[in-house]
Amino acid sequence: MTELRLEELSATTIVEVNNLSLKEGQEEFLAPESYDLAASSVTPQTSWQRVVLDGDEVVGFISANFDPDAPLEYFRSVLWRINVDADDQGRGVGRFAVEGLLAEARERGCEKVDVIYMEGEGGPEAFFTRIGFTPVGETEFGEVIGEIRL
Predict the structure, then answer these.
(1) Would you state the pLDDT for residue 37?
(2) Which of the chain's ends, N or C, has fewer CB atoms near its CB within 10 Å?
(3) Which pLDDT value is given to residue 123?
């Protein structure tokens, strides 16, 4: 593994992001129902999307939104999505991406970052807990709301 770095999502990297592989069973945890609710309010001005590169290879993707005026508090500073290629999971790529997101949130003056996920066998809960998210509530759809206080 070379040194990981974050770069803005671009026309060059979006195809590689779309081709990231998942481990069996992970596809059911990609997009919680509540994200559909908020998707219409996301704008390029509030969206933050980065790819994780290992050398020249895209090994991960992270997407977040920073909207202090979002009607639901847990959408004001939220980790929307994180994908790490199946072959690269377990070697710190996800943690690196989230640390980049947390640095961005601090620069923007956020007090916390939220994440929304579904519980279940093979789901992301263990990862989110390991990197510091604490469950603090539930959406109206039954998804877990986790947060990291900054």
Answers:
(1) 43
(2) N
(3) 84
Give a yes or no: residue 60 inside a domain.
Answer: yes
| Residue 119, domain member (yes or no) | no
Concatenating the DSSP letter of every residue in the chain gives ---EEEEE--HHHHHHHHT----TTGGGGSS-HHHHHHHTT--TTTEEEEEEEETTEEEEEEEEEE-TT-SSGGGSEEEEEEEE-GGGTTTTHHHHHHHHHHHHHHHTT-SEEEEEE--STTSSHHHHHHTT-EEEEE-TTS-EEEEEE-
Looking up tokens 């377990």, which residue turns up? 90
Q: Which two tokens stand for residue 7?
A: 């770069």
> Residue 126: how many CA atoms within 13 Å on its side-chain side?
6
Residue 126 within a domain: no
The model's pLDDT over 98-109, given as tens digits with 9 standing for 90+, comes to: 999 999 999 999
Domain that holds residue 48: 4-110
Residue 42 sits in a domain of what CATH number?
3.40.630.30
- In the numeric block, the tokens 């949130």 are attached to 105
Between the alpha carbon of residue 37 and those of residues 5, 41, 78, 128, the distances in Å are 31, 9, 14, 22
What are the tens digits of pLDDT across the range 7-16?
998 888 888 8
